[in-house]
Amino acid sequence: MIIDRQREKLVEAVVYFALHTRNLGKTKLFKLLYFLDFKHYRDTGRAVTGLDYFAWPKGPVPVKLFEELQQPEVSWGNSVSFRPKAVAKGSMLTVTAHKQFDPSLFTKRELKILESLATQYRDVYADDMVEATHLENLPWDKVWNQEGRRQQPIPYSYALRAQDYETMTAFVDEREEFLRVMSK
What we know:
Radius of gyration: 17 Å
Helix content: 40-55%
Number of domains: 1
Distance between the termini: 9 Å
Shape: globular
Strand content: 5-15%
């Protein structure tokens, strides 16, 4: 039996970013998760959290997580809390970890990406991260600007380098077929 640990990895990734970055609100969190998933997919053909991202005006948004965080009483058990906080431009949803990070769910590659992102964006505000997600020819730009598909899904395959596209998509297709067969 195959065990899907993507939800657990999502919670632990949020815990990690809450512990290792400053000024972590919803927008910054979404961008960090996007970078984590798309970088890992580019390297391995597999996302870490399993979230689907959509091209919204300020960048990639994992819509299901966005909707979950819109609920009045968001509860992630004893792991993480999400609370509104007044800021100069209105309010933001702050993210606070209530437990230590559990690295046992992650591969070495995933841990390295988590650490790299937390280091790179530790003191950065969400507004300063917008440009990094909007760079020309990156996945959000392809969907939003080049294809004009506003509010639409950003295919993970857009993270692949042109020279790796055929090899990696064949690998991804084989993996998905294997998972379908094993889950029956």
